[in-house]
Write a structure and sequence with these properties.
Guanylate Kinase phosphate binding domain, globular
Length: 135
């Protein structure tokens, strides 16, 4: 789930192994402070996201907390053809969809927070999640 440390783990893995190819997800949510388009996410308008999805340009997509997120198909497929290892920061449903689309050529890691109280604290600190969704 959100707030478990997926982005932190991905950042550490990338720092330790520069050959990992990070899949930058697309999203319709606004950038958080410090996030850069193309580095942290590809920030798209809802209509641009919809066109990409309709054209088959996403391996998977989901609506989370009112925003859409998706994994670009072209990037992933090109990297696989090149024999590269891809790292993606996605949720459980997205991982299952990608595993199915890529016929199992996927290794996934599921992260849980240290405690539910700690997760609640993290989400409240981020201030980008609806308080009703945190409960």
């Amino acid at each position: 789930p959100s707030g478990t440390g997926k982005s932190t783990v991905c950042r550490e893995l990338r720092a330790r192994d520069p050959e990992l190819r990070y899949s930058v997800s697309c999203t319709t949510r606004p950038p958080r402070p410090g996030e850069r388009n193309g580095r942290h996410y590809r920030f798209l308008t809802p209509s641009a996201f919809g066109r990409l999805r309709a054209a088959g340009g996403l391996l998977e997509w989901a609506r989370v907390h009112g925003a859409c997120y998706g994994t670009p198909r072209r990037f992933v497929e090109e990297r696989i053809r090149a024999g590269e290892v891809i790292l993606a920061d996605i949720d459980v449903q997205g991982a299952a969809k990608i595993r199915k689309a890529l016929r199992g050529a996927v290794v996934s890691v599921f992260l849980l927070p240290p405690s539910w109280r700690r997760l609640e604290t993290r989400l409240r600190r981020r201030r980008d999640t609806d308080p009703a969704a945190i409960r």
